[in-house]
Amino acid sequence: MIKLFNSPLNHSLAYSAQTTAERDSNDQPGQCNPDPRRRHGAVSDQLGQFANTLILFLSDNGGCTEFMAEDGWAQFYPDVTQDGRKITMGNVPDLRPGDAQTLQSYDKLWANVSNAPFRLFKHYVHESGISTPLVAHWPKGFKVRPTAHAACHMVDILSTILEAAGAGYLTELGGHEIQPMQGESLLPLLRGKDWEREQPIFFEHEGNAAMLMGQFKLVRLHGQDWELYDMEADRTELSNIIKGEERRAQEMIRQYQDWAEKSGVMDWDIALPKLLAAWNMSSLEG
C-alpha cells in the first residue's frame, strides 16, 4: 500500500515528531494534527498493512509573496461563506485577518520571514521557491536512517512508487503515446545507500529558470542574467560565482536550453499577455 500526503504547514514535520502523549495534550478543537499515522494511517492499520505501507509526507514549498488586491486575484475566489456571510476580499490595511470572513495574502515581508534564510519566495526558483522537506515511512521497506541531504525532485516520487510497487511505467494509453518518465527512484537513498541523482534537475516557472547539476546550481530570474552558485558552500545563494566559472555555466545553460526545448517550455513574454487577457488583469501584482 502506498500513500502520498502534502501539507502547506511547514511546522508539521516537527509537530508530527512529538510523542503520542504530547500530541494528545496539544490537540485542540480547530487545530490541525498533520501526523500521518493518526490522520491517515488508521485505514492501513485496520487492513493490517501499516508496516507495509509506504507513506511519503512533504510540506509545501514556502510562503507565497503574491499580493491579494480586491480587483486582482480576489475576483477568482468565493465572496461569501458557505452559510452566506460576506467575505471581505483583499489586503485591507485596517482589517485584522484570520476568520472566515477575510481573505488576505502574506505579501512580501511575511513571505520573507517564513522562507528565511533562503532567497526569495514561492513562484521563483531560487531556494525558497523550490525547497521542501520529505518524510518517508515504510517499516518493511527500509530501516530508520539519518537525515539525507541528496537533491531530489517531485518527478522522482513516481519512480519511487513504481519501484516500491513492482510496477512498470506505461508507454501508451488508449493509443496515445505517454511522455517518458524523467524521475529516478529514491528507494536506494531511503535504504541508506550513498545515492545521488544521475541526471540534472531542471526548473522553469513563469520565466524563472534553474538547473541543478551536482553541487552547482544555475538560476535566473525572468528577464535577468544567469547566476551560478555552489550549493555545498552557499545554499543561501549569496555569492554568485559565474564570473569565475564561465565554461561550466555555458555548458549548463546549453543543457537547460536543450531541456526547455524538448519539454515545450513556452516563452513567458509570449504566454503572460495571453494569460492576463484571459484573467482580465493588467498585471500579476494582485
- Rounded average pLDDT: 82
Structural class label? alpha+beta
Spans of at least 5 consecutive residues whose pLDDT stays below 50 are 1-34
| Cα end-to-end separation | 42 Å
Count up the helices: 10
**How large is the radius of gyration?**
22 Å
Q: How is this structure best described in words?
A:
It is built from ten helices and eleven strands. It has a four-stranded antiparallel beta sheet with strand order 8-9-10-11, covered by helices on one side. Mean pLDDT is 82; it is low at 1-34. Strand 8 and strand 9 (208-213) form a beta hairpin. It is globular, with a radius of gyration of 22 Å. The chain has helices at 12-16, 20-26, 36-39, 41-46, 107-115, 127-130, 155-165, 187-190, 246-263, 268-279; strands at residues 2-7, 54-59, 88-89, 102-103, 134-137, 172-173, 176-177, 201-205, 208-213, 216-220, 227-230. The protein has 286 residues and is α+β, with helices and mostly antiparallel strands.
Write the SSE topology:
Elements: E1 2-7, H1 12-16, H2 20-26, H3 36-39, H4 41-46, E2 54-59, E3 88-89, E4 102-103, H5 107-115, H6 127-130, E5 134-137, H7 155-165, E6 172-173, E7 176-177, H8 187-190, E8 201-205, E9 208-213, E10 216-220, E11 227-230, H9 246-263, H10 268-279
Parallel strand pairs: 1-2, 3-4
Antiparallel strand pairs: 2-5, 6-7, 8-9, 9-10, 10-11
Q: What is this entry, summarized?
A:
This protein has 286 residues and is α+β, with helices and mostly antiparallel strands. The protein has ten helices and eleven strands.
